[in-house]
């Protein structure tokens, strides 16, 4: 009879006890798999939400500010060496090595002009790109679609006395108000958004751009790399990431990862103790059997291998069942518990992780029991016969 046969027969005789270990391992490994799946899904969801939120890179013209003082009294500042941006710069952004990570490029020109006899802030924009930058806008009406339409901020609409569907005159053209933007708490509330080309002509800035907003899908590539690449493509511009968005994402990722590791460590420690306790109890009950094996010539290594084989079989089964339970649990409960926007897909890669974790827990928990069984004196068997 081979060692694996002895181990298998032992498992069949004590199926109730070993079923308890398998269940405990299934719950422990399943918890780890579920936590890892949720953590990854939440990280991806946070990244997607931040990417959908809008611009995370701002490009402005380079300039140099001089502080002026006269007689020791500060009298203001002077901006010199201003290097203009133009509409061609927005095209160059699409040529960087990480261009696949650029979801929207929105050049803007900003200025003030008379609209229906009232001074108003005008922002020229490309309406085909603006939804990717300001996807969080809530609009009474709809988004502007062409050069003959405009969008109004809340305060601008009140100042001009305009509502969605009405018209306003700008640059000798009648523009239809496609929608009014709900209050944002930003300068957008005071702005009249019109087509970029029209705004450049009305403001006397043909081909010029005041700033460029870029929405970069940064998952899988550091935003700093994109900033460096844009800076190289536009040496006359100042390229700056919106640090709040980057810091929020990174902080969320770190917190999720630390929480997952901490809970997983506690769960696996408890699982190791359960395996160790149960296997020690099994060795104690099998004193006669182990003693007889030693008496008929089995070496210490043989006895230890029998115990470890039983442990490995139990833990591989627990790992497989844990992966199934954890994956299904995360898939069913994840969207509700973590408020995810999409279901969590099954990850076959976690299957290997689950089996490896379960095997390590089993070997760690069963090692002491195996060593104790191997050191048992053959004379112990005579006391139980």
Word description of this protein:
With 385 residues, this protein is α+β, with helices and mostly antiparallel strands. It folds into two domains: 3-49 and 250-382, no CATH class; 57-66 and 78-241, no CATH class. Helices cover 54% and strands 21% of the residues. It has twelve helices and 14 strands. The protein has helices at residues 3-13, 15-53, 87-93, 130-133, 154-160, 196-202, 223-233, 243-285, 287-295, 300-337, 349-374, 379-382; strands spanning 57-61, 64-70, 73-80, 85-86, 102-115, 118-125, 139-141, 149-152, 167-170, 173-181, 191-195, 208-209, 211-216, 237-241. Strands 1, 5, 6, 7, 8, 9, 10, 11, 13 and 14 form a ten-stranded mixed beta sheet that branches. Strands 2-3 form a two-stranded antiparallel ribbon. Helix 2 (15-53) packs across helix 10, helix 2 (15-53) runs antiparallel to helix 11 (349-374) and helix 10 packs antiparallel against helix 11. The longest helix is centred in the C-terminal third of the chain and has 43 residues, at 243-285. The protein is elongated, with a radius of gyration of 34 Å. 36% of the residues are buried.
